[in-house]
Each structure stands twice: as structure tokens, then as C-alpha cells.
Design a protein that fits this description.
This protein has about 475 residues and is an alpha/beta fold. The protein contains 14 helices and 23 strands. Keywords: Hydrolase, Signal.
């Protein structure tokens, strides 16, 4: 996305003895041995991210605490945050991040008394944000420099190593850190600067994972797939409809194509949709009268990308990503809800059901397999399919009947069930022979948004519904 230019207990704010224990909730992340997924402390990690881009620019500590608590309770485990959005970047309590907007001059003041607003600076505040995120079991996917700096020619091969060194040295000890190089820009416009930032951070901090957040309808793999500092790919499938997509090699709303393309590259690296269409944002972003993306749309993007092989998914909501308040000034895109109201947007609350289902089956062995679907459709009629050795999942956005090729997983017989992406509830279909082809008819009347996932399990596995 290109941007258009009650007090809590003091102990909560000052509890600096807690971070060591809190970090146990966010073990170090690493890429799985097969190069397709992530693990946290040796266990499968399904990235369920929220784009809280302007958290550092908009929220005080009480609001930050409420936001973290809510998203953690909803099943999110990653918050994507801009460290430096524009030269004037500042926190409402901690003040400016830079001296005169200069990337070479972070504004660091003596002391860091977290009990007293005004006694800690921007970087002390970011320290606190990491601590509180860890306490809620949240990782911070930190974008050091947003693309505006590159647009203003303030981010270049001269400034990139300076700010990269500063943040890497300060935050390399944070276990709940994920580096997100880039800042919603095509890497081809400033390739040497972004590469310099990645190399600088990696030289100082070889432990934390790093990716690149590109502009809309692009992937990090296009420029940096073989870069040593890039551990996994991230693409921005964007906010346009099929009809609005005028990009070269337009893929419209088919975000699964980016997943498939990234996974076809060597060496093997995981991939994720880091910015699909946001809930409650106009189609095409800056086209005000256009309809807005709704819960069914954000579910579709999530299920399509994950079943195509993505290791997780990032969700976004228009008011939340910019922390808009009713009566205040919006950064962009005509938000209507206050951010705290928008935390309960239905699509955002439904994201956890995909995560729950995927983690309920063997995670690291899962592969996309469209051969499960016989006579597949296109666009909204396409059924996405994935499987492990003893299970398979097929997702229909419209709920139209579809035919499945059985015999792709183990077992003489398979248990079939419908999984509701809106509620996470399961409806048993029954036991069927694991051979030949079979027509499955989802509940309800076929229509966009009547989405259902067919779940097939080797009956001998004895998995609970």
C-alpha cells in the first residue's frame, strides 16, 4: 500500500523484570528444514499477522496495551509495525524518533524512566513495545525505514548503513523481533539502498529472520530471492479488483499465484502474503466511491494463499492499520470506524479459524496439490487444495459443488467433514471409500462468500472433529 502523503497500573508500564519470562512466550524463529515453513522453538509456527503499521506514531502506552491484549486474544501472533514512517516520525508521548528527520541522527536522550512520560525517548518507547508484545506472546515484524524516505532521497547507500547499524545493535537481543526490510516500494527503484540495509542488519544480527515488504502486486522474490539476508519471501497481493488491475503481468485477486511463483524458485524459501486487500478499505484504495472489501473477501485471500503453500497470513483493517479515531484526521482511505471498534471487524475475528485448522494437522509435511480437484474453475469458482500424507483440505469460496479425486492420501476409507471458515465449527459428512472421484456439495446456496472447507482425514488416524 502506498500511503497518501484509562490509565493502567504503573507496574504494567514499568515492569521491566518481566521481559525475560515474557520472552519465553516468543521463542526464536527459524526456517524449517524443507525451506517452506517457520518453526518457533522447534514447533510449527503459523504466522497470523496484523498490520498495525502506525502503532508507534499513534498510540500511547495504554492504547498499545489494549491493542496487544485484544489481538493476542484473537489468535494473532505477529504485529507488523513501521519504525520510521516519515522524517517527522514521532510518538505522541515519547516524541520524535530522529533529529531534524535525519536517518543518521536518531534522537536518543539520557535516561529511560518508563514510569514518567517525558522521561523516555522514542527508542526507549520502542524497547517497551517489544517487552509488552513479548508479554502477550506477540512477535514484532519491524520495518526499519518506510518507502517515503526513499521517495524523498533521504534513504540511500549513505544513510542505510547508519540507521541499519543503529537499530540492529539496539534490538538484536529481542527474541520477538522479525526484520522487514523494504517499505512498500518496488525494490528496483532503490535496489542498492535496500540491499545495503539488509546486509548491514544481517552482519550485526545474524540470528533474526528477515524479509522484504514490496509494493502492491509484487514479491520480494523478484529482486532479492537469492540475497543472503532474505530468509523468506513476502508479497503484497494488493487492494485492486480483477477489473482494476492494470499492472504488468496482472494477476488480479488471485493472490495464490504469488505463492506458487515464490515456491517454484530456488533455493527453497518460505513465502507469505504480507499485505492483501484490507477489510473495510475501498477497492483500489484511493477510489473513494468504490465498494469496500468485506469479511468474505479477507477470508478468501487468507485461505487461497495458505492452501497454495504460504506459511501463514497477514490480515489488515483500514482503521486499525492507521489507528484512526472518529473525529480525528485520517492518514488515508476514508476509514469509518475507530480503530478499537474495528478490532472486532468480523473478518479479523475469523482469521484464527484458518490457523487453528492448519495447526490441527501435521504442519511441516503439508503441500499444495490442485490435482485433488477435478475440472476446477477460475477466479471465484476455483477450489484451492492442500494435503499431507493422511489429510487433505479443499476450500471453495462460493460453496458450489465440486468433484474430488480420492486416493491422494493414506487410508482405505476417509472421514469427510465441512469446516466453516466463519465459525471454526465442523459438520460431519461421513465415511467414504478412498478411491475414485466423488462430488461434494457444501451447505447453503452457492454464492460468493458462502465459503466452506472440505476436510478429509485417513479414518485410521482417529483425529477428533
Amino acid at each position: 500500500m502506498r500511503w497518501i502523503t484509562s490509565a493502567l497500573a504503573v507496574a504494567m508500564f514499568t515492569g521491566l523484570a518481566a521481559p525475560a519470562a515474557a520472552q519465553d512466550r516468543t521463542p526464536p524463529l527459524k526456517v524449517s528444514a524443507n525451506g517452506r515453513y517457520l518453526e518457533a522453538g522447534g514447533r510449527p509456527f503459523f504466522w497470523l499477522g496484523d498490520t498495525g503499521w502506525l502503532l508507534l506514531a499513534k498510540l500511547d502506552r495504554e492504547a498499545t496495551e489494549r491493542y496487544f491484549a485484544k489481538r493476542a486474544a484473537q489468535g494473532y501472533n505477529v504485529i507488523q509495525v513501521m519504525m520510521l514512517h516519515r522524517p517527522e516520525m514521532a510518538n505522541p508521548v515519547a516524541g520524535a524518533a530522529l533529529i531534524e528527520g535525519d536517518l543518521k541522527r536518531p534522537r536518543v536522550t539520557p535516561g529511560n524512566d518508563h514510569a514518567k512520560p517525558g522521561e523516555y525517548d522514542y527508542w526507549d518507547h520502542l524497547d517497551w513495545v517489544f517487552d509488552r508484545a513479548a508479554a502477550h506472546g506477540l512477535y514484532i515484524a519491524l520495518v526499519p525505514v518506510w518507502g517515503d524516505f526513499a521517495d524523498f532521497r533521504l534513504f540511500n547507500t549513505d544513510t542505510a548503513p547508519v540507521i541499519g547499524r543503529f537499530v540492529a545493535e539496539r534490538y538484536k537481543g529481542r527474541r520477538n523481533l522479525i526484520w522487514v526490510n523494504g517499505g512498500d516500494r518496488y525494490a528496483e527503484l532503490s535496489p542498492n539502498a535496500w540491499d545495503a540495509l539488509g546486509k548491514t542488519i544481517r552482519a550485526i544480527d545474524p540470528e533474526h529472520l528477515m524479509t522484504y515488504h514490496p509494493a502492491g502486486r509484487a514479491s520480494s522474490s523478484w529482486m532479492f530471492h537469492r540475497a543472503d539476508w532474505l530468509d523468506f519471501n513476502m508479497y503484497q497481493s494488493g487492494h485492486q479488483t480483477y477489473a482494476q488491475d492494470q499492472q504488468l503481468n496482472a494477476r488480479g485477486e488471485d493472490n495464490w499465484v504469488y505463492t506458487a511463483d515464490d515456491l517454484s524458485r530456488t533455493p527453497a524459501k518460505p513465502t507469505i502474503d504480507g499485505e492483501p486487500s484490507y477489510e473495510n478499505i475501498p477497492h483500489g484504495l484511493d477510489r473513494g466511491p468504490e465498494p469496500r472489501w468485506q469479511a468474505a473477501d479477507v477470508r478468501r485471500y487468507a485461505w487461497w494463499s495458505v492452501l497454495a503453500g504460504a506459511f501463514g497470513h497477514s490480515y489488515g483493517e483500514n482503521s486499525v492499520m492507521q489507528f484512526f479515531m472518529r473525529g480525528g484526521k485520517a492518514n488515508a482511505y476514508w476509514p469509518k470506524l475507530s480503530w478499537d471498534e474495528a478490532l472486532d471487524a468480523p473478518g479479523g475475528t475469523q482469521m484464527r479459524h484458518l490457523k487453528d485448522l492448519i495447526l490441527s494437522r501435521p504442519f511441516l509435511e503439508r503441500v499444495p496439490d490442485q490435482s485433488l480437484i477435478v475440472g476446477n474453475g477460475k477466479r471465484y469458482e476455483r477450489v484451492a487444495a492442500t494435503r499431507g500424507s493422511s489429510y487433505a483440505i479443499a476450500y471453495s469460496y462460493t460453496g458450489a459443488p465440486f468433484r474430488v479425486q480420492l486416493g491422494k492420501i493414506s487410508g482405505m476409507r476417509v472421514r469427510a467433514a465441512w469446516y466453516d471458515p466463519r465459525t471454526g465449527k465442523t459438520q460431519l459428512i461421513g465415511s467414504v471409500a478412498n478411491r475414485g472421484q466423488r462430488l461434494f456439495t457444501p451447505p447453503g446456496t452457492p454464492a460468493p462468500g458462502n465459503d466452506w472447507a472440505l476436510v478429509l482425514d485417513d479414518e485410521a488416524a482417529g483425529r477428533p472433529l
